[in-house]
């Protein structure tokens, strides 16, 4: 079943985060993922949630998300991203 990784990101160091963004796509694609939303303008329609940046990545399954996140290919990118931004990540199965 298709699954989605949803990330809310607060970027503190845009220079380092841009290096992360420039390298992450091939690793996501290796695990069958594709960006659905990658930043962009957002509009809050209801409630008080005010994310500064949202990312949605579609994967073939929850296991693909787990495998990508725990992969040795993603580990150095995760180490690059974490000092540059504060993220909240959730994985959810689609319909």
What would you say about this model in short?
The chain is of the alpha+beta class. The protein has helices spanning 14-30, 62-69, 75-81, and strands at 3-11, 34-38, 54-59, 85-93.
What would your notes on this structure say?
With 95 residues, the chain is α+β, with helices and mostly antiparallel strands. It is built from three helices and four strands.
Question: What brief labels describe this structure?
Answer:
alpha+beta, four-stranded antiparallel sheet, 95 residues
List the helices and strands and how they pair.
Layout: E1 3-11, H1 14-30, E2 34-38, E3 54-59, H2 62-69, H3 75-81, E4 85-93
Number of helices: 3
Structural class: alpha+beta
Radius of gyration from the alpha-carbon trace, in angstroms = 13 Å
Mean of all residue-level pLDDT scores: 96
What's the N-to-C terminus distance? 8 Å
């Amino acid at each position: 079943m298709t699954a989605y990784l949803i990330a809310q990101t607060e970027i503190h160091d845009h220079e380092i985060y841009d290096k992360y963004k420039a390298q992450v796509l091939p690793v996501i694609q290796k695990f069958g993922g594709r960006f659905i939303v990658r930043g962009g303008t957002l509009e809050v329609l209801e409630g008080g949630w005010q994310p500064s940046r949202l990312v949605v990545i579609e994967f073939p399954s929850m296991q693909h998300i787990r495998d990508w996140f725990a992969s040795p290919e993603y580990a150095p990118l995760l180490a690059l991203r974490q000092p540059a931004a504060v993220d909240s990540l959730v994985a959810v199965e689609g319909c």
